[in-house]
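Practice problem 4.
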């Protein structure tokens, strides 16, 4: 499939590494003006340089409403549109979480659940709410892709998937809302 995104502005949250970086790279190679977003400026700067194709970056914690607002206004000021929004921000499991994989959900959730829930599904809402208010220069539709991972990750990504479906319904046809979860 030849996906061309020429003349489109794609914002990828969690875009400095992992799945988000891969998405950003693919979008950039497909002609999109890509803006990657995460909390750490040094990682963003390095990732944008590696991605190339004029990849732009903004340091922001999109789970914080004021930072999400600032981020999206910066995108609009720099690029004039947001055509694609990829909800990829996630709380990465800690090494302690990996050791708990064989335990119960309750054991896995000790601290991780609240951290992950505060970043994964809750972190999408400030970005989407701000995107909704930024106007109607957006793409049509919604996309969804999900793969399995550990229990806490699965729970938060399930919430994110359902929230993404709802947002795709609410924001379409103006905004394309995406979700990715890894296996």
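Answer key:
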């Amino acid at each position: 499939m030849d996906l061309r995104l020429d003349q489109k502005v794609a914002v990828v949250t969690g875009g400095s590494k992992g799945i988000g970086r891969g998405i950003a790279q693919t979008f950039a190679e497909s002609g999109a003006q890509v803006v990657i977003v995460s909390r750490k400026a040094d990682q963003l700067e390095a990732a944008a340089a590696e991605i190339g194709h004029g990849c732009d970056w903004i340091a922001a914690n999109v789970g914080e409403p004021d930072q999400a607002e600032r981020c999206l206004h910066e995108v609009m000021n720099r690029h004039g549109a947001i055509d694609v929004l990829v909800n990829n921000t996630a709380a990465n499991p800690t090494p302690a979480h990996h050791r708990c994989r064989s335990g119960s959900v309750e054991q896995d959730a000790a601290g991780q659940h609240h951290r992950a829930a505060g970043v994964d599904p809750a972190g999408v809402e400030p970005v989407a709410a701000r995107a909704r208010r930024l106007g109607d220069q957006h793409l049509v539709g919604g996309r969804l892709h999900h793969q399995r991972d550990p229990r806490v990750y699965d729970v938060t990504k399930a919430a994110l998937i359902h929230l993404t479906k709802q947002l795709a319904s609410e924001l379409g046809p103006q905004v394309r809302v995406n979700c990715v979860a890894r296996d």
